[in-house]
Amino acid sequence: MLPDVRDRLPGMAPKSASMKGFYRQKKSTKSTASKNVSTKKSPNLPMPYDSDITQPAALISHGSLDLKDSYKEDEQILGRFDMNMAYGPCLGMSRQARWERALKLGLNPPEEIESILKRGKVGSVCLWEGRV
């Protein structure tokens, strides 16, 4: 039988019974007191468009706010509709087309949005159009 190559070459790791001995795992140990604490994970549900939950901060570029606070009430409602991904992506289509697509897919978009869009006194493009 031929001798093992590792026995003859300098700098090679010695022959071991298994790789487990060479690569030892260190497992973290937790105290038993921490096992009694239970954490509940909130369900990952879409936020309704008129939710009171804090919305993400407005984008800032060049030291000034991109989104102005002087929007009319209808624009604010439509802005929340644009921010809510429960009705699908909003880039590349008008707000009316997005509302109709959400209706066809059974996502139950708010009827208030449709009435605002039909009045025609608001912008038809989404909040992010031209910014992304």
UniProtKB/TrEMBL annotation:
Organism lineage string: Eukaryota, Viridiplantae, Streptophyta, Embryophyta, Tracheophyta
Single biological process term from Gene Ontology: DNA-templated DNA replication
GO function terms (MF aspect): DNA-directed DNA polymerase activity
Cellular component annotations (GO), alphabetically ordered: delta DNA polymerase complex
PANTHER family named among the record's database cross-references: DNA POLYMERASE DELTA SUBUNIT 4 (PTHR14303)
Polar residues compositional bias, start-end: 30-42
Region named Disordered: 1-52
The protein, known as: DNA polymerase delta subunit 4
